[in-house]
User: What shape does this take?
Amino acid sequence: NVLKNLQALFQYSPHKLVEHGWYGHVDFLKVLATMDVCMQVSLTESFNIVTADVVSVDRPIVVSKDIEWMPNFLKATPTSHDDIFKKLNFAFNYPKLVSIVQKLYLKWYNKKAEKVWLKEMKKEGIWKNIQI
Assistant: This one.
């Protein structure tokens, strides 16, 4: 139903919805790098590796609140087309700014996660076997 709704949304739009099949990771990153703006506004996602991939190729992306590591100004309410549109519009118009901020947030989140994991590994006594 989501795909049908997206197709209907673009049917009379001056914009084009481009659908892609499955890619290997390297080819997927190449496709992401060609996009103007991305969207991962889901009702159930958490970390979301696709969002991290988008950030890694310096493209702006709008997400839902469940992707906690993203900045709030890029988090849209999944059930609000107005909110999604506003966030997409901002990301599209300020892609360099958005990409820089997203990357900083992802790096911050990764550092935070690394500290948590290292603390747990030390606690469990497996730190001596870990090489970073």
In short: The beta strands are 38-40, 61-63. The helical segments are 2-11, 25-32, 49-56, 81-93, 95-124.
